[in-house]
Design a protein that fits this description.
With 305 residues, this protein is an alpha/beta fold. It has 9 helices and 15 strands. The chain has helices spanning 13-24, 46-56, 71-75, 82-91, 110-113, 127-136, 156-163, 258-274, 290-302; strands spanning 7-10, 29-31, 38-42, 65-67, 96-101, 118-122, 140-141, 169-172, 183-186, 193-196, 206-207, 227-228, 238-242, 250-251, 279-282. The strands form 3 sheets. The chain has a 9-stranded mixed beta sheet with strand order 2-3-7-4-6-5-9-10-11, with helices on both faces. A 4-stranded parallel beta sheet has the order 12-15-13-14, with helices on one face. The longest helix has 17 residues, at 258-274.
């Protein structure tokens, strides 16, 4: 079978109609969300979900986030206790993913959960993904639209660079406003547990690690070049990404603003990866909350492979 020709369409009613047609045909499409671009497919169709894994080259034990239109749709798929419901009501639609027990009659393809008894659910705020959910009439499994382990995509051209020739369609909704993946919280009984840091800070959540959450492999979000952290100056063969007082070749945020840095993070990693220098260095990013989420991404990007 010949590889697909990847088209890019600007977000519009006609583009959403075409995306919904492809979803119904069992094909994944790349969509903007407020966090990063996602590679969306019908979460009830195992073959469609398999195409996500094939396009990304994603490890089969890493579960996928399922996007739904609202809390009512989420509760038809997962079991929400009072804690989970309160988190959803406080932060949905938005960049929070909740891991909850999977309902036996949910109809979700087993490949989505990678064999786990829980499911990761999110109600996105981006109008393009909401429009596709309405048009498709299905829950959509949608991990980040990039080759597995590589830099996440925050613009349509990032998706094309990573997945061009692997998928049929990219909907271009412009740059993502958050620029970093969603916060993931497990709400499966007892106190909520923080599985991945992101734009939303959950103060009461105990932080844990595990493969029940997407994006928890040790080496993740990785550029093709070696990456050195906490650099204050560049070595002669390095492309330095600065932050705050460290100017660098370019900067996540000259003013040290973590919100600006999060929105720029993956874009600048793409730029550094495409630069002629054979190595990348990144300045220290101090602070809690969103800054800690950025450090988490960078630590994974720098992990030995």
């Amino acid at each position: 079978m010949a590889p697909p020709v990847t088209r890019t369409l600007r977000f519009s009613p006609a583009a959403i109609a075409e995306a919904a047609r492809l979803i119904a045909a069992g094909e994944p499409v790349a969509m903007p969300t407020e966090t990063v671009y996602g590679l969306a497919a019908d979460a009830t169709n195992g073959e469609a979900v398999a195409l996500i894994y094939a396009a990304k080259g994603r490890p089969s034990f890493n579960p996928l986030i399922v996007h739904v239109a609202d809390l009512a749709a989420a509760e038809r798929i997962g079991v929400f206790d009072e804690t989970a419901r309160a988190l959803a009501e406080a932060h949905w639609p938005g960049p929070l993913t909740l891991v909850v027990p999977l309902r036996e009659d949910a109809g979700i393809a087993p490949l989505v959960t990678a064999g786990l008894s829980t499911i990761a659910l999110r109600v996105p705020a981006h109008p393009a993904m909401q429009a596709l959910l309405a048009a498709a009439g299905k829950p959509l499994a949608a991990p980040s639209a990039n080759a597995s382990g590589k830099i996440s995509a925050t613009r349509a051209d990032h998706v094309r660079a990573s997945l061009g020739g692997r998928i049929a369609l990219i909907i271009d909704g412009g740059p993502c406003s958050q620029g970093i993946e969603s916060t993931i919280v497990a709400a499966t009984g007892g106190a909520p547990r923080l599985l991945r840091r992101g734009p939303i800070e959950i103060d009461a959540a105990e932080e844990t690690r595990g493969i029940e959450a997407p994006g928890q492999l040790a080496s993740h979000y990785a550029p093709s070049k070696p990456l050195r952290l906490d650099a204050t100056t560049a070595e002669p063969d390095e492309y330095l990404i600065g932050f705050g007082p460290v100017t660098g070749t370019t900067s996540l945020s000259p003013s040290g603003d973590p919100i600006e840095a999060a929105a720029q993070l993956f874009d600048l990693l793409h730029r550094a990866d495409a630069a002629p220098e054979p190595r990348i260095a990144v300045a220290p990013v101090a602070g809690d909350g969103l800054a800690a989420a950025i450090r988490d991404r960078l630590t994974r990007a720098a992990a030995p492979r």
